[in-house]
Amino acid sequence: DQQVKQNSPSLSVQEGRISILNCDYTNSMFDYFLWYKKYPAEGPTFLISISSIKDKNEDGRFTVFLNKSAKHLSLHIVPSQPGDSAVYFCAASASTSGTYKYIFGTGTRLKVLA
Amino acid sequence: SAVISQKPSRDICQRGTSLTIQCQVDSQVTMMFWYRQQPGQSLTLIATANQGSEATYESGFVIDKFPISRPNLTFSTLTVSNMSPEDSSIYLCSVVASLETQYFGPGTRLLVL
User: Fold this and answer.
1) Contact A100 B31 (CB under 8 A)
2) Between B48, B100, B103, which is nearest A99 by CB?
3) Burial class (CB in 10 A: 0-12, 13-18, 19+), B88
4) Are B13 and B108 in contact (CB under 8 A)?
5) d(CA B76, CA B92)
6) B2 — contact with chain A (CB < 8 Å)?
7) B46 contact A CB<8A
8) Contact between residue A109 and residue A9 where contact means Cβ atoms under 8 Å apart
9) Residues of A in contact with B31 (CB under 8 A)
């Protein structure tokens, strides 16, 4: 049972446009969410996080939106740059578990076209 | 943020052998985890490396296959024992700075022939 899902395995966007990466989850106990970017042959790089007490968190070109009722979050990248081409993972955790363990989605490969 | 290094960065091993992967962090951290990313798949948690006690393994992973050591708050090792081609994967250690931040090492790319 995949508790965190990224239904789009790939996405192509023109440079300068907005990239929107989506993530859905099934466990209503999840209350912390992270987004990572991963280049080939490197470890995942932490991008941005959001807790369930918020519905939006912004950091530069990256904004994460959380819709708790829909159990859905999205990462917006504006404007998209060729260097953003990578695989993006969302991850979710339940703070009540006390374990700090995160469940990862399957990833979306973003390609930004110059 | 924490700076994490892993050794080796990659290795090619024969089936039936074992490989120990090291993870070093530049600061003391409480929570340290080991993940696996098989080709084309997501990151799967193997275990939580506990300092001074036995690691806590996730469903599907056992200590005999993936023994873990955590002698102090900055260092951990993961051994992949009696390897088979199915163990070919990227192995990653990660540390938790807070509920909202978790950092990963660069990974160890393992190929088992």
Assistant:
1) yes
2) B48
3) middle
4) no
5) 11
6) no
7) no
8) yes
9) 100
Query: Residue B86: what pLDDT?
Result: 95
> CA separation (Å) from B2 to A61, A68, A72, B97?
23, 30, 29, 8
Mean pLDDT of chain A: 94
Contacts of A91 (CB under 8 A, 6+ apart): A4, A33, A34, A35, A36, A102, A103, A104, A105, B43, B102
Q: Which residues of chain B have pLDDT under 50?
A: none
Chain A residue with minimum CA distance to B57: A101
| pLDDT tens-place string over residues A2-55 | 899 999 999 999 999 999 999 999 999 999 999 999 998 889 999 999 999 999
User: What sign results for the dihedral spanned by CA atoms A32, A40, B111, B72?
Assistant: negative
Give the C-alpha separation, A45 to B56, whole Å: 25
Please answer yes or no on whether A43 and B1 come within 8 Å at the CB atom: no
Task: In whole angstroms, give the CA distance from residue A56 to residue A50.
Answer: 7
A50: three-class secondary structure by DSSP: strand
Distance CA A54, CA B24 (A): 34
Cβ–Cβ gap A95/B106 under 8 Å: no
Chain A: residue whose CA lies nearest to B58: A101
Question: Which chain B residues contact residue A101 at CB under 8 A?
Answer: 33, 45, 48
Residue linked to tokens 């941005």: A48
